[in-house]
Amino acid sequence: MHKHGGDVYRQRYRMDYSVNINPLGTPEPVMAAACEGIRHSAQYPDVDCEALREKLAKAEGVKEEQLIFGNGAADLIFSLALAVKPKETLVPAPTFVEYEQAVRTVDSQVVYHKLRKENGFVLGREILEEITPRTDMVFLCNPNNPTGLLAEKELLLEILEKCAACKALLVIDECFNAFLDRPEDYSMKEYMDSYPNLFILKAFTKIYAMPGLRLGYGLCADPALLSRMREANQPWNVSIPAQYAGTAALDETAYVKRCRDMLSGERDYLKKHLKELGFQALDSQANYIFFHAFPELGRELADRGILIRDCSNFVGLEEGYFRIAVKTHEENKELINTMKEVMKWQRQL
Prior knowledge:
This protein has helices spanning about 30-40, 50-60, 75-85, 100-105, 125-130, 155-165, 225-230, 240-250, 255-275, 295-305, 330-349, and strands spanning about 15, 65-70, 90-95, 110-115, 135-140, 170-175, 200-205, 215-220, 280, 290, 305, 310, 320-325. By secondary structure, it is of the alpha/beta class. The strands form three sheets. The protein has a seven-stranded mixed β-sheet with strand order 2-8-7-6-5-3-4, sandwiched between helices. A four-stranded antiparallel β-sheet has the order 9-10-13-12, with helices on one face. Helix 2 packs parallel to helix 8 and helix 3 (about 75-85) packs parallel to helix 4.
């Protein structure tokens, strides 16, 4: 079983840097809406998520019929696998493990495109050579998890065109796109109508800090694929509290802007201090930072009550790679000061 971040149920901690959600916390109106949803829990959820669908379609600038909802983004990844049943799937390594887990449930052969340390783990044009007529599905995460690095839209368009030529479905995970300084510069949403082989994965989980409510959605212009996904989904897979919370969250535009404004400076602060500590930090543009340190760092911080994400169980990574969330300045100062204590202790050994 792959170990994720955020396992706060089995560890004592005072700060959790192992998961990447909005550091401002769940907005009060979203929590109030979820509570209102609980009051309606004696009835089944709306299987069509009609109120949420109408409001989200306007927010995203897409047609209502181009939306599909799930019990978190992971739910949609697994229903995609069941709907497509790919014989061969191409995934970068390292990247989000659920892509591989989902397609292996339908016995898909997984081909890894290795993101190499010597190239800074950047996605390059080499991936185009690995998309062949045998490829049925390609997963890309932009910005990538765990590296936080972005692929430029020009490269993504080349990949999309190659997938179309090979009759492969391209799934682009944009769950962390909302944290970017300029999200629209990297989203592939504008190509949906021209490329029905494009599926964009998004979620309320991270940007609205509501992972416990489980609400993800997909954007696609292929009605046949969406129909197969709905058939693969369990009925009532989005709860009433989640639907109410999602509908309320779409009004929280000022909250999202406040988060982006804060993240830009705090991300730079953490990268600067990680490098001063002697760690190798990538130039992440997301709400998390990927870096290399000594392998025992995670355990030493956990002993001091701080959880960070050990990335050694990602395909393509070895011991010593870690990921930390970007949080508020006071929390980030405490993290860095604790890291300095650990480094001082290490030098005395």
